[in-house]
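debug: dumping io for the single-chain case to check the tokenizer round-trip. Nothing else runs in this session.
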Amino acid sequence: MARTPPRGLPSTTPPSSATPKAEPSGWPHGVDIISISIGGGAGTTAPEFHDDNVAIACPHVSGIAAMLRQAQPSWGPAKIKSALMTTAYNTDSDGEVIKSASTGKASTPLDRGAGHVDPNRALDPGLVYDVTRTDYVDFLCSLGYTDKQIAIFNRGSSGSPSSVIDCSKKSHKKPPRFTDLNYPAFSVVLKSAKDKATQLRRLTIVGDYVEVTYKVIINTPPGVRVTVNPPTLRFIINGPTVKKYQVTFEANGEESDVYYTYGSIVWTDGKHNVTNPITVYWPDEDQVAAI
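debug: decoded output
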């Protein structure tokens, strides 16, 4: 079997001052992909050649997403994206981490996102991260958007605002945090060797089951202690289909000499592996002041 070639990967979005949150997503097969399109009439013009991995990635993943939607018509965009991301893989045919074509070194979540999409596994992901309208409104509130700005997004099928949003009066025990957006990946900013952060997530079980228990496996990023509570999620037929958990990221006191360290959280029932990349950002003093 031929070894998987290195990835010609663009970087995913690194943490910004507004939302210190990298957003790993998925990536299809191929490197230095060339697409050919015939312009004008049938064969009357010369082919146009395009060499752009990002442009070609979009129709590849879109086609897989359409396949998932056909197989699971009740799934919305968030569930489909979650299924693609949490079932992706990051190793080549020799079992080694896929290399970045630009550096020749092992790729990271900022290179490859969640990894290579796997359509077959995405059809049966086990658990998915769903995102509701309320989640997105909370996210916008946490970023400081005004009620008027949020009303532009929060529209019903008729095109008119579906409800009036007042971020200052939202019924939360705690103000919404953008880091709690129910995304299938974790991006954490630790500003010092003693810093600590928590993030909340919830998982929805999909597919056929009678009783199943998922246990967490933590691949800890260097310099960080990671705690998941609860460490197991148990689902039974006719019981709740959604379970919440909290992740605590705590610097272990060692000064980091790199800007990023990486790890993952995997929920497994022995059949399904629901993988969530972790990217930890260690800003220097000047960057801390800007965040």
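debug: round-trip ok. DSSP finds seven helices and 13 strands in the chain.
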